[in-house]
Design brief:
This protein is 30% helix and 15% strand. It is an alpha+beta fold.
């Protein structure tokens, strides 16, 4: 197996930037480019946010039963894709601030990139909000005496 520890992440980005499996090109909207990388918190196709190129990357995904999963990339096992990530899962029961504090504490104690902490919490908040059940829209009430009279005649 070839060891790529001597290849810089900048070189890898320059090689993989124009075409990779995670790239999503959008022809409308000025030709914007997005990323499907699970370790990309903002889904932007950029060097800073790319998870497969950076040595330390963080990702947040939804878990079963309304929980969250924090995925971090291990720096010492980059050549072994199955063992190169670490997953921490929170169940759906804890409140949002407890999960957000757990994300911040985990990334800080593991010396992960400080610039990704706020983005990880924002992504976790968005995932939690998408997991909530939506309320039913109440029926519109009739206003005014003429509207009520028209409704009674239709019945």
């Amino acid at each position: 197996m070839t060891d790529y520890n001597n290849v810089s992440s900048d070189l890898l980005w320059e090689i993989c930037r124009p075409y990779n499996a995670y790239l999503v090109k959008n022809k409308t909207g000025g030709g914007s480019q997005f990323s499907k990388d699970p370790l990309n918190l903002l889904n932007k196709h950029s060097r800073k946010h790319s998870g497969f190129v950076n040595n330390k990357a963080v990702g947040v995904q939804s878990a079963d039963n309304g929980g969250l999963t924090l995925i971090t990339k291990k720096t010492k096992q980059q050549n072994r894709p199955s063992a190169s990530s670490n997953k921490v899962t929170w169940a759906g029961n804890p409140s949002g601030p407890k999960i957000y504090k757990g994300i911040v504490n985990y990334t800080a104690k593991q010396n992960y990139r400080a610039d990704l902490r706020q983005e990880a919490v924002a992504r976790a908040s968005a995932v939690r909000q998408s997991q909530r059940t939506k309320k039913d829209i109440p029926e519109k009430k009739l206003r005014g005496s003429k509207a009520k009279a028209a409704a009674e005649t239709n019945l």
